[in-house]
Design a protein that fits this description.
Helices cover about 50% and strands about 20% of the residues. The chain is an alpha/beta fold and about 180 residues long. Strands 3-2-1-4-5 form a 5-stranded mixed beta sheet. A hairpin with an 8-residue loop joins β2 and β3.
């Protein structure tokens, strides 16, 4: 199974694809990186470029699950808008590929990966390096954040499966 974590952004959109094999002790990093668009280009052009890059990424990696950061608060409105636009593209491409799509807040990710919600970018970077057995910390931070999203999903996946099975068995017949 491939889990693709996406840390959305219009200037820098981090991604990390982790492979989970049956019986493996830890996931394996298949791809880590950042998709970029030039800030000097108009927003519609940048969105089109990011969309094309996301489509190519999905074609190459064929993820089963896509974990996208759920941004519900930003101090800077302009940043919030561009992050929301990039997030929307990632969600749409994933849904169009019939991937399971999940969203986690930054605090959920930090609490899951680091054990507390106030972890710094450097701490997340170091913990992702250790959890994935990487030779060096993933750079830039956007790639590390995307890997942390995928790791967060892997931690939540068993609970999500149990809840879905429980809901399915509790559903009335014929519903």
């Amino acid at each position: 199974m491939f889990v693709l974590g996406i840390d959305p952004g219009l200037s820098r959109c981090g991604y990390a694809c982790l492979e989970v094999s049956p019986g493996a002790r830890q996931p394996r990093a298949v791809a880590l990186g950042v998709l970029t668009t030039p800030p000097s280009s108009p927003t519609p052009v940048r969105l089109a470029e990011l969309h094309g890059e996301l489509v190519r990424l999905f074609d190459e990696l064929t993820p089963h699950v896509v974990a996208v950061e759920h941004v519900f608060f930003q101090v800077n409105r302009r940043t919030a808008m561009s992050v929301a636009q990039a997030s929307g593209l990632a969600l749409a491409v994933a849904a169009g590929r019939a991937c399971e799509v999940v969203q986690y807040t930054p605090n959920q990710v930090k609490e899951t990966v680091a054990g507390y919600g106030a972890a710094s970018k450097k701490q997340i970077q170091a913990l992702v390096q250790a959890r994935l057995g990487l030779a060096r910390p993933p750079r830039p931070f956007d790639a590390a954040d995307a890997a942390a999203l995928a790791l967060c999903h892997l931690a939540f996946a068993p609970l999500r499966r149990r809840l879905a099975a429980q809901q399915a068995s509790a559903a009335p017949a014929g519903a």
